[in-house]
Amino acid sequence: MIGAKVWTASSQADAGELDLHITATHLFEHASSPTGVGFVLAVALVRPHSQGTLTLVSRDPAVAPRIDLNFLAEPGDRRRLIEGIELARRLGAAPPLADLVERELNPGPQATSRADLEASMLATLDTYHHPTSTAPMGAPDDPAAVTDRLGAVHGVPGLRVVDASIFPDVPSAATNLTVIAAAEHISRQI
């Protein structure tokens, strides 16, 4: 079952944008299942509007920066993710998946309102753990830009960054392949 994926647009997605993933996975504590096995229809909002921050707190590189992930701060992000959860529940309740389900564990059959779904969503929120866009590329006059289009850090000669941090926007695809493509492109240019 792992690897099956729905990639779709929420009702609030921009034209041509696919902002929701639903992935079938086995990554959960199987002891919590009454059958000892199970699967998760994991829902992800891959084009969030909420933005976090990364702030240096010291010049000492051994001191960790302050990171505020700021997940779901934008109300629209919450609505879109709940829409994805509702779609996942419909998929799980329809054949042939319904034939494999003894019962829904989370959010569970007692979750009947959007408020119930939001409470469950906030209690179980996780991330793909693929941070991006903390040193975005852009023009020298862009106050948010840290690097140019080839990863050269503005105002710091000889320093180049080529990883997911230079993305000017969060990609809606896996960051691994996107980083490889960016690195190969930049390496050919320099």
Give a structural overview.
By secondary structure, this protein is of the alpha+beta class. The protein contains 3 helices and 5 strands. The chain has helices at 75-93, 114-124, 175-189, and strands at residues 5-8, 20-25, 40-45, 53-55, 66-68. Strands 1-2-3 form a 3-stranded antiparallel beta sheet, covered by helices on one side. A two-stranded antiparallel ribbon has the order 4-5. The radius of gyration is 20 Å and the shape is elongated. The model has no long low-confidence stretch (mean pLDDT 92).
- Bulk shape: elongated
Summed up, the helix count is 3
Tally the beta strands: 5
Helix content: 10-25%
Instruction: Report the sheet-strand fraction.
Output: 5-15%
Strand order of the largest sheet: 1-2-3
Termini, distance in Å? 43 Å
Low-confidence stretches: none
Radius of gyration: 20 Å
The structural class is alpha+beta
Order of helices and strands: EEEEEHHH
Average pLDDT over all residues: 92
- Main beta-sheet strand count, sense and barrel state: 3 strands, antiparallel
Topology diagram in text:
Blueprint: E1 5-8, E2 20-25, E3 40-45, E4 53-55, E5 66-68, H1 75-93, H2 114-124, H3 175-189
Antiparallel strand pairs: 1-2, 2-3, 4-5
Helix pairs in contact: 1-2
